[in-house]
Design brief:
- This protein has twelve helices and nine strands.
- The strands form two sheets. Strands 3-2-1-4-7-6-8 form a seven-stranded mixed β-sheet, sandwiched between helices. The chain has a two-stranded antiparallel ribbon with strand order 5-9.
- 37% of the residues are buried.
Length: 329
């Protein structure tokens, strides 16, 4: 995690910026200039700094970021959590703004930021920001899944694609867990809530993400990657509703296959189908109950692909354990 003892002495630095944008980047030459331009446009009214942490790019990401006026740090190895923590070590702003390298601020963000800064300055610790929105011209997956998710109410976590947090609270929490390959934002929000912090998704702080999956294959691969975050320990697995849902998904398919292939247990087929239908329906209702009916219907189908990807992450776990197992000479 982020070690406050490694931070530079900020006592003699004046004036300190109000906002510190922390942007991890790996081969983002196609996106970084647009992202930095949106910051300079929408955050111009505030003293701010932009820190781009290059995670070993082989393209012109670092050069383009430097030419655009960002402070560029190099960290060629390390998890995404380590990359973000590294940026914080050099940040001087009162409020940290974690932003993906392929995301853009909007005029809505600029208009509603003052109210969020007031809330962040209050006594109660706050983690805010927003779920990123897709571009106006987007695929059907982006439209139904990500656009509807962007307005989620009563969010229990926020992604680091766009997260705002007071610097002091971030350091108090020890930063992101650098041991995590993915899911560091979810784990951080869990700790923040346990420490009395509030998690608030504010859709008015609209940020556009330009690289959401546009095909089912991309969507499944994305969820297979994110699913690894639930496999860091047995405790994390049991505490994750998504991981448990993926397990139920596998059990349902096991019952269906058994009912189809094994003699004398045909009754398992309808049981497996019922479990699968209930899982998809319950997941859709929990996440998209405020969405239009058409989006609920489409996302019910997308949840099948979602759990397919999350279940596929279990293969990574088995592969990792197999690689660690001792071999006979």
């Amino acid at each position: 995690m982020c070690d406050p003892g490694q931070l530079p002495d900020l006592a003699d630095v004046d004036p300190a910026p109000e906002l510190s944008f922390i942007i991890p980047a790996l081969n983002e030459a196609d996106n970084i200039v647009r992202t930095l331009a949106s910051i300079e446009r929408e955050a111009a009214a505030y003293r701010h700094e932009v820190i781009v942490v290059d995670n070993g790019s082989t393209d012109a990401t670092a050069q383009l970021a430097q030419e655009a006026g960002a402070k560029v740090l190099l960290l060629p190895a390390g998890t995404i959590a380590a990359v973000r923590n590294h940026g914080v070590r050099y940040a001087r702003g009162r409020v940290l703004v974690f932003l993906d390298a392929d995301a853009s601020l909007t005029s809505d963000w600029r208009e509603h930021l003052p109210a969020s800064l007031i809330a962040l300055a209050a006594t109660k610790p706050l983690v805010t920001g927003s779920h990123c929105s897709p571009p106006d011209h987007c695929s059907w997956i982006e439209h139904h899944w990500f656009r509807e998710f962007a307005v989620e109410q009563n969010a229990r976590h926020l992604g680091t694609g766009h997260m705002l947090i007071p610097r002091d609270f971030f350091l108090q929490m020890g930063g992101f867990d650098e041991r995590l390959e993915t899911g560091e934002d979810y784990e951080f929000c869990q700790r923040a809530r346990a420490a009395g912090g509030e998690i608030v998704n504010n859709p008015q702080l609209r940020v556009v993400h330009h690289n959401f999956p546009r095909t089912l294959r991309q969507f499944i691969r994305r969820e297979a990657w994110h699913g690894r975050g639930d496999l860091r320990s047995l405790r994390a697995f049991l505490q994750s509703k998504v991981a448990l849902g993926a397990s139920a998904f596998l059990v349902a398919h096991g019952l269906v296959l058994a009912g189809l292939l094994l003699p004398g247990v045909a009754s398992l087929l309808p049981l497996g189908l019922l479990l699968l239908i209930l899982l998809l329906a319950a997941s859709t209702w929990k996440k998209y109950r405020y969405a239009p009916w058409r989006s609920r219907f489409v996302n019910g189908g997308l949840f099948y692909a979602y759990y397919l990807g999350r279940s596929a992450s279990l293969l990574y776990l088995f592969q990792r354990r197999s690689a660690r197992a001792p071999r006979l000479a």
